[in-house]
Write a structure and sequence with these properties.
mainly beta; disordered N terminus; Immunoglobulin-like; binds copper (II) ion; about 525 residues; binds CU-O-CU linkage; 6-stranded mixed sheet
Length: about 525
């Protein structure tokens, strides 16, 4: 429509120019004014067109025709020392992501995404990570408290054809963690191609909750994608600095997914596995459109102290929520992401997907629902971490933290083991950022957001906002191997919005160098 209008304007201008030769000054001025107005109109029309094309709304327009894929539970064996052993192979493949069967993808033990790893608190685990991608990568256990050398960050590179076998003891409360590559400079691409999976930690001594995998407990990995024909498009959004902003949604790799709900309560462990997009998830009845409030029971690394009934929850990349929904028998509901409140100006908000609405997943409740366990009123205790012995300030701006770009040879913080620290993290920018810390789960201070009432490892920070994060570095000293902290908008992370810290014993000095053969800077 706009194109046709513009063509019409151009024809008018052409005629005006052709006839202007013999006209009076006033005539010429009139013609010039008409031309200028027409040009402004045309530019305005195309700008308006461009601007409105940046807003996506799929409400009511998604056909939910495919059953939601449920990642398999990773199989494991237990050796004679009681170590639970998993095998994860990063590999290439093809998958049907809604554009035919020939889309080239990456996955773990399969062609897209990976199996759900599940282990108990207190268990020793070893994971054989084999790299069959044909290029270097890493596999990071996001949210895990473990020795830095086992973390799978940028320093633990796995070369093609090699196997890396980290081993550690699961030493933290029940939570919904995940795994993904972390190769410095290439994390965005590796995650986007499809390497990601869930990591559930169970606590046999924790509260009783719905936890039958694939029956009343489902992983829900939400990702946005773009396609060029039938292949994934890796292009960053134009004019935006946040990187890839996808216009199509996949849940566990399924486009247009529905889930058959068979129990009164269905537990959904939701991960925002996108590169940059921020979602605002709610559940709506399909018969009358009414909001169906749901119960938030956990976020990131653990259960909340108490369940909270909420209408919507906003999730930035890397964050998780653990929710329990009750869909009335014989009805269906749709999980929808309405426009998230990014706290940014209208320009940055729209460019970052802040005005978008997506229908995500249909929940179809059977005519008869099985009874399952109710949600207890107390879920976890908020630990007293004590007073901070150190306060650190970090400001996120552009693709820098405190004006510095990530360097694998530089240590940004040396932390005494056992210390409780307060990190004050500011988004000094006009665009969205979030902040993720490896090794620990932190408490967010001075907030009444129920999602932030438990322990977190990733938190959204609005432009101009400062968040106060309290954390304790309990154990696992290593002066030579650092942990990371970074923005989890993956393009920002890759471009250098990341820093390193080591946890040391008294008297130890940091001695970190990038792995040999790697200069420690972003790949081009
Ligand atoms: Cu989810 Cu440092 O990463
Ligand atoms: Cu992480
Ligand atoms: Cu960022």
């Amino acid at each position: 429509m706009f194109v046709a209008q513009r063509a019409g304007d151009n024809q008018c201008m052409g005629r005006g120019d052709g006839n202007s030769a013999g006209r009076s000054w006033t005539g010429r001025i009139v013609v010039s004014v008409v031309v200028v107005v027409a040009l402004i109109g045309a530019a305005g029309a195309s700008l308006t067109y461009f601007w409105s094309s940046l807003r996506i709304d799929t409400q009511g327009a998604v056909e939910f025709t495919r059953p939601l894929a449920i990642p398999e539970l990773a199989s494991s064996t237990v050796d004679e020392d009681g170590v639970r052993i998993f095998d994860l192979q990063m590999q290439e493949g093809t998958a049907d992501l809604g554009h035919g069967p020939g889309t080239r993808t990456w996955g773990v033990n399969g062609s897209y995404l990976g199996p759900t790893v599940r282990a108990d608190r207190g268990e020793d685990v070893r994971i054989n990570v084999r790299n069959e991608l044909g290029e270097t990568s890493t596999l990071h256990w996001h949210g895990m408290h473990l020795p830095a050398a086992m973390d799978g960050g940028p320093h633990q590179m796995v070369e093609p054809g090699q196997t890396w076998s980290p081993q550690w003891t699961i030493n933290q409360p029940a939570g919904t963690l995940w795994y993904h590559p972390h190769l410095h400079g290439s994390t965005a691409e590796h995650v986007y191609r499809g390497i990601a999976g869930m990591f559930y930690i169970d606590d046999p001594d924790g509260p009783v909750l719905p936890d039958e995998y694939g029956v009343d407990d489902f992983p829900i990995i939400v990702q946005d994608k773009n396609f060029d024909d039938d292949q994934l498009s890796l292009s960053n959004r134009k004019l935006s600095e946040v990187g890839i902003v996808g216009e199509e949604i996949l849940v566990n790799g399924t486009p247009g997914p529905y889930l058959e709900v068979t129990t009164e309560r269905v537990r959904l462990r939701m991960l925002n596995g996108s590169n940059a997009r921020i979602f605002n998830f709610g559940i709506y009845s399909e018969s009358d459109g009414a909001v169906l409030p749901f119960t938030l029971i956990g976020a990131d690394g653990g259960l909340l102290p108490r369940p909270a009934l909420v209408q919507a929850v906003q999730l930035s990349p890397g964050e998780r929520i653990d929710i329990v929904a009750e869909i009335p028998a014989g009805t269906s509901a749709v999980m929808r992401s309405t426009a998230p409140d990014l706290g940014a100006d209208f320009w940055h908000s729209r460019l970052s997907g802040g005005d978008d609405v997506f229908d995500i997943l249909q929940l179809r409740a059977a005519p008869q629902l099985e009874t399952n366990t109710p949600i207890p009123s107390v879920l976890a205790e908020r630990e007293n971490l004590g007073e901070p012995v150190e306060v650190r300030q970090f400001t996120l701006l552009g693709t820098r933290i405190n004006e510095q770009r990530m360097d694998m040879n530089r240590v940004d913080a040396v932390i005494d083991v056992g210390a409780t620290e307060l990190w004050e993290v500011t988004n000094g920018d006009a665009q969205p950022h979030n902040f993720h810390v490896h090794d620990v789960q932190f408490q967010v201070l001075e907030t009444d957001d129920p999602m932030l009432s438990g322990v977190k490892d990733t938190v959204y920070i609005r432009p101009g906002q400062t968040v106060k994060l309290l954390m304790r570095f309990e154990d696992y000293t290593d002066p030579q191997v650092p942990y990371m902290f970074h923005c989890h908008l993956l393009r920002h992370e890759d471009d250098g919005m990341m820093g390193q810290f080591v946890v040391v014993r008294e008297g130890q000095e940091a001695a970190v160098t990038a792995p040999s053969g790697h200069d420690g800077h972003s790949h081009p």
